[in-house]
């Protein structure tokens, strides 16, 4: 069964306010702290009993964590900041709906993730393409390591450029960061 709903401007404003609150938490957290909190949330939340639409968004959280930790990808700023912002909201157990409320506790997280993932889709697509390319490369012998490294760097740079072009074209529908 498919159920859809429409977010009104007031609804979006509530999510913006909740995101701003979560971002204030980031003032006292390093990126490592955010990653640790997101990992802890993934491990502690009742994800197994969560509805499928929530579980699908949580897979994206796992991908974002892997992307931030991937030294070969080396996600640059400001995209890195956007990913960290997304994880901050997810890791906050006291967001719009407290996460420990059965069935609906992760609903706001799923909605916020969906909104923020729309903004990040080009970043995530580029990372998936990079990982696919990296897996397609043969395991290098000693002489091939430099060539493989150079090929990965060229592919990474091309994918980052594609990512930025697509983002610049405004193909994102996520609400922008609220003004201070």
UniProtKB/TrEMBL annotation:
Keywords: Membrane, Transmembrane, Transmembrane helix
Pfam families according to UniProt: DUF1232
Subcellular localization: Endomembrane system
Domain named DUF1232: residues: 86-113
Membrane topology, from the record: Multi-pass membrane protein
InterPro entries xrefs: DUF1232
UniProt name for this protein: DUF1232 domain-containing protein
Species this chain originates from: Tahibacter amnicola
